[in-house]
Amino acid sequence: MFMLVKLLSVHRVSLPEIMFWRQFVTLPILFGWLAAHGQLGQLKTTRLKDHGKRAVLGTIGMVCNFGAAIWLPLAMATVLGFTTPLFAVLLTALLLAERVGPWRWAAVVAGFVGVLIIEQPGSAASLNIPLHGAIAGLGAGFMVAIISLHIRDLTRTDTPVSVVFYFALFGSLFLAPLLPFVMTPHSTQVWLEILALGLVGTIAQVLLTAALRYGSAASVLVMDYTSLMWTTLYGFYLFNQLPPDHMWYGAPLIVAAGLVIAWREHRHHKLNQRIEAEAEAGAQ
Q1: Half-sphere CA count of 283, side-chain side, radius 13 A
Q2: CB neighbours (10 Å) of residue 211?
Q3: pLDDT tens digit string along 101-154?
Q4: Residues 257 and 113 sit within 8 Å (Cβ to Cβ)
Q5: Whose CB among 134, 242, 257, 258 lies 3.0–4.6 Å from 107's, allowing a Cys bridge?
């Protein structure tokens, strides 16, 4: 999906228009699929207000994600997005008052050290990294952490398909007023790329939402690490871009931090399950 975003930007499609089509194309795909299978009831919801809030957060997150993909080498944008588990730990500690142990705090510190190695603020290397791109990359990690918590809450009552559908619906409504100011004529090739973006983005969003329904955010999001391989290949073969050498010194720290957080999340989840099972057995 991010490769297609960057490709469309190379073809002079503006960021707001890319975001609009990414959302709008989703609507007929999901509606048609549900209608064909007699499953339109999956869209039933009593939480339109919550879906609206998720769409606001998701639109901000999309600006960050897509902006980073456009302004930075794909691999670097991907690595900065890996800060999501770090922000997730901070959010659970600050907003949910969850106790965070030394392992996870150490992982958070190590992860942000990795960010500093990549960004190298004040050095000559940092001059090659657009500031707005770096801010967008970190903003993407932060927003995905917030959105993941919101999606987990929504999927307690609504289906993953409905969460994606209403995000696309509200997102399209938010972005449509911008089209007269940013839309330009497109060739057949660009329209095919736009359709591909909508299709790939829809499938990815449904799968991610379903994954967040059944697994912890940290465990699910750590699977994103495989995308570094793909974005590096796409960046090299399609855009003749490779990330700077110093990124490969910071990236392992960020990835290792995410793996440690996922491991601790998994242990805590298993421990809580065991405590609940023992309490239930004692009550019987």
Answers
A1: 6
A2: 16
A3: 888 888 888 888 888 888 777 665 555 678 888 899 999 989 988 888 888 889
A4: no
A5: 257
Residue for token digits 């990795």? 114
Specify the pTM.
0.83
CA distance 20 to 186: 15
Helix or strand or coil: residue 211? helix
Query: Residue 133 in contact with residue 67, Cβ under 8 Å?
Result: yes
Dist CA 220 CA 53 (whole Å): 22
Distance CA 232, CA 227 (A): 8
Residues 101, 223, 64, CA angle at the centre, nearest 5°? 90
Token pair belonging to 89: 């730990």
Using CA atoms in the order 249, 255, 259, 261, what is the torsion angle rounded to 10 degrees?
100
Contact 31, 207 (CB under 8 A): no
Pair 254, 116: CB distance under 8 Å: no
Q: Give tens-digit pLDDT for 20-42.
A: 999 999 999 999 999 999 999 99
Token readout for 24 is 């709008």
Contact 241, 72 (CB under 8 A): no
Which position has the token pair 């932060």? 142
